[in-house]
């Protein structure tokens, strides 16, 4: 027997139930249950999406390594020059003479080392003869004795700024600007070869600390290369005497030579 869902009364037939609902409940139909939406299945996260983060992290790490690497390579050249630019030559102006030899082959000391857009470094070259110019005024940092190591520092900085114009080369190959007791322009001491420093023809162990200011080569008695033309009053000479401490006589003599060699061990 059907029952009325509103009042619970039982009826013999469905027709009687309908009539009852019409009379007592305004003909309302029983409320139908709201249809239930089928549960949506969660889409599985794609493998590609799950793997995106490790890939991104790897790319970011590689980028960071590259940036750090570029910084350490380039930072010496992004900073200022290794020494303050000179403001004149009234206090000292001397000319050491440097020769570099790798296993019997001369390596040119290029023109323009230490000559930069902002000025001149205290040690520089005006030509490719190997003649170095050490120039200072009385207002420069005259307490610093410029050394062979300082010259290589200036050379390395200039090469970073000017590129191939001042890079050392051997048989068409560009060499790194490095110098120590065991490494000359990338040629390292081993069981067969060694680096040798000769000052006035004699072996020296001063290496980078060698004081250039005491090793002038040119004087008024010199004619021709390597002093001319950059230290001569005319193209052929004579050379000028060095300027020293505002005009006093240079106390260290003339004709000094500096030779760096990479030679076979005897």
Helix content: 10-25%
Q: What percentage of the residues does DSSP assign to strands (E)?
A: 15-25%
Biggest sheet layout: 5 strands, mixed
Mean pLDDT: 84
State the helix count: 4
Query: End-to-end span in angstroms?
Result: 125 Å
Number of strands: 15
Overall geometry comes to rod-shaped
Class based on secondary structure composition and strand pairing: alpha+beta
Helix and strand element order: HHHEEEEEEEHEEEEEEEE
**For the CA atoms, what is the radius of gyration?**
43 Å
Widest beta sheet: strand line-up? 3-2-15-12-13
Model regions low in confidence, pLDDT < 50 over at least 5 residues: 67-77
Give an overview in words:
This protein is an alpha+beta fold and 266 residues long. It has a domain at 92-264. Helix content is 21%, strand content 18%. A 5-stranded mixed beta sheet has the order 3-2-15-12-13, with no helix packed on it. A 4-stranded antiparallel beta sheet has the order 6-7-1-14. A two-stranded antiparallel sheet has the order 4-5. The longest helix has 27 residues, at 52-78. It is rod-shaped, with a radius of gyration of 43 Å. The model is unreliable at 67-77 (pLDDT under 50).
